Amino acid sequence: MADKRWRILPLNTEPHYRDAVVEWQSQAFGDETSRDFFASVVDSSLRGADLPVTWIALDDERVIGTIGLWRCDLISRQDLWPWLAALYVDPAYRGQGVSERLQQRVINEASARGFSNLYLWASFADYYERFGWEYQGEALDYPNKKVRVYRRPL
């Protein structure tokens, strides 16, 4: 069950959490060479770009998760947008509803902006389906990694 102390806020309102978000994203989704890439995405959201937007989940003043709404998160499927991207929850908070609240924040934002669908990709099955995401098929993440593409009608 979600803790009422948890808050979901745009990162640009709490920019001092930037380094923690960049570190999480580069470790969870990249490799030793991708920190600068993730920093550039986060920095774009801090500058007030329309997209990407980054949110953080806070438990009091501790950052416990992050998520983004991105224009493109899968180069091989640039025909689809926008994307729920870079969802990460601190391991100590997993299984407590943080992921669901972060997802819902992005879903609400995409809907408010007038999008009719939202997309994400994952390298695993049987997680996002629990939250109403519809499996669309396989695609390739650069350069040749097979991933699963999901759609969420809004």
CATH homologous superfamily classification: Gcn5-related N-acetyltransferase (GNAT)
Percent strand equals 25-35%
Provide the low-confidence segments as ranges: none
The helix fraction, in percent, is 25-40%
Mean pLDDT: 95
Total count of strands: 7
Order of secondary-structure elements: EHHEEEHEEE
CATH hierarchy, class: Alpha Beta
Helical stretch count?
3
Q: What does this 3D model show about the protein?
A:
This protein has 154 residues and is an alpha+beta fold. It has a single domain (6-121), classed as Aminopeptidase, CATH 3.40.630. 25% of the residues lie in helices and 33% in strands. The protein contains three helices and seven strands, in the order E-H-H-E-E-E-H-E-E-E. It has helices at residues 18-29, 35-46, 98-112, and strands spanning 6-10, 53-59, 62-70, 83-89, 117-122, 134-141, 145-153. The strands form two sheets. A four-stranded antiparallel beta sheet has the order 1-2-3-4, sandwiched between helices. A three-stranded antiparallel beta sheet has the order 5-7-6. Strand 6 and strand 7 (145-153) form a beta hairpin. The longest helix is centred in the last third of the chain and has 15 residues, at 98-112. The model has no long low-confidence stretch (mean pLDDT 95).
